[in-house]
Amino acid sequence: MGFPIFSSDTVFLFKVDMDIENNKSYKPDWTPDNHGDEFAIRIVKGVENRPENLRQKSFKRKEFTTEELVNGVLEGNRILLAKTITLIESTSQNHQLRAKEVLTQLLPHSGKSLRIGISGVPGAGKSTLIEALGVYLINLGHKVAVLTIDPSSSISKGSILGDKTRMEKLSKDENCFIRPSPSSGTLGGVARKTRESITACEAAGYNIILIETVGVGQSETTVRSMVDFFLLVLISGGGDELQGMKKGVMEICDAILINKADGENKRKALMAKAEFSSALHYLYPSTEGWESKAYTASAITGEGIEELWTEMLKFEEITKTSGVFERRRRLQNIEWVEFMIKDYLFDSFFGNKQISAQFTELKEKLLNGEILPSAAFDLLKETYFKLK
Ligand code: GDP
């Protein structure tokens, strides 16, 4: 049995023969690395040059113009939205300029969404919840975009959020757009790209933006600074729920959801809800005029999802009426500029070869206790300003 496989400029004929016993002397042109005895496929290298009539136009990468991207996004074309976000995420200066042109034209069409941040430790059930909530919202007629901020991808180049098959039902729905976290850059840089991606998604007609992050380090405050409503997803542990819970995170959330409130776990989840509700009651509210409360839900059975959404709608109505919603968005724009400045300065400082060489030397001295941290900082600062 033989069948052709087309690559960009070569046609390979892969010849498959399950009966290798009779042909022991046969040596394949190629075998996979680490193949075992079960490998029963012979591969014969095929024609080197692909015939003209087999060349496929679709392999050529098309560069879209700014106008094509803007119109495509405004028409809700998901492929062009994805291409626009790729431009936003690109580190090439040329792409950055193009992204800016596209975003400038999209900006007047953005802003009309409810931006919801969802955070929690790995395993709390965030992606299962986003799938359940997303499908529920789409059935109500909404268009849902899911963006993720994965701090692990910028710190360790690994990924806590991205390396599993997630949100399968949701990702197949045409009213949903899912984009994983940009895979490189500082948290500030990743956050800038996500903010710009929000603008693009809104211009494409997505009226609910879900931004997922894991509860480590600075990522929660970063997400808080770009959303209207911030939800913390927890699971009950059966013991003293508040133990080990960072007060700071509770202070920035608009609701706590105790997930996995199903089966035998339900009772414990309800107890945790009561405990968190009373703790939240004594904290300064995250959003003026809104009392943050704890809720229970099961992302698997769907119980509690409707109630959660009703609370989010109530939040939107109350804060829009009081003006808090709009005021927060304006303040977030100021914060956004501050983020960009910090990110720029960080890059300009550590991106400088002289500074990084000097810092390497100073680190050695710091480790040996030969210099004070403030003195090391002064030296680096001096070098930096001399360079400017
Ligand atoms: P994430 O790391 O926070 O995104 O968590 P996942 O959504 O991947 O869920 C982690 C595990 O918890 C998976 O095995 C889910 O099936 C399970 N899970 C998520 N939500 C629920 C729930 O509401 N009830 C139960 N029983 N299991 C859940």
Concise synopsis of the structure shown:
With 388 residues, the protein is α/β, with parallel strands linked by helices. The chain has 14 helices and 9 strands.
Polypeptide structure, described:
The chain has 388 residues and is an alpha/beta fold. It is built from 14 helices and nine strands. The strands form two sheets. Strands 5-4-6-3-7-8-9 form a seven-stranded parallel beta sheet, with helices on both faces. The chain has a two-stranded antiparallel sheet with strand order 1-2. It is globular, with a radius of gyration of 26 Å. Residues 120, 122-128, 259-260, 262, 298-300 line the site of guanosine-5'-diphosphate.
Which terms would index this structure?
388 residues; alpha/beta; seven-stranded parallel sheet; binds guanosine-5'-diphosphate
